[in-house]
Amino acid sequence: MASALIWGVSAALAKNHDSKFSAQDVDEEASAMSSLAAAPQATATPSGTPPPQIDGFGTINGPNGKFAQFFIFDVEDEQITPEFLEGEFGYIDKRSHINFTTGKIQTVTINGNQGTFTGTARIGGPRNRQTVQFTVMVTANEGAVSDTFSIQLSNGYSASGNLRTGTIQIRTLDPD
Fold first, then answer.
1. Model confidence at 158: pLDDT above 60
2. Distance (Å, rounded) from C-alpha 64 to C-alpha 165?
3. Taking Cα atoms as reference points, which of 48, 100, 99 lies closest to residue 77?
4. Burial, 48: exposed, middle or buried (Cβ in 10 Å; 0-12, 13-18, 19+)?
5. Quick one: pLDDT at residue 79?
């Protein structure tokens, strides 16, 4: 008798992993699972307009004479865990030894073409790793004026300026 690996077998059938399943056990389990799959499923219905989000990437002049780079992905005032909001943020200033990527976004405020978000990140090497709070402020200027980016860390580091390269967008996307 050939044995078969069956995914999704109920706890009642799988409680003794040494026992063999009969063809009737498998048929009964498959029937129960197919009736569950056919049952109507609850779906989330969006309520109102989705929150605006901040997206962008670019470089600014860092405080030590070199370019600092950043990316902002889907940062918005939407709770995704009990502690954090949606979004990813990354920043690197090699000359200042600042380099991190984080999804630990704690607050997001958007007003027109300006946005501010805060969160936590871990910086440093294996021997001097530390957690810092950050505050980022952006202005998305459409047209001839450059977008602006500003960052301040709880360890005293700060950098700001017009983007040398890149773009920042503050927008509301269609939920569909």
1. yes
2. 18
3. 48
4. exposed
5. 92
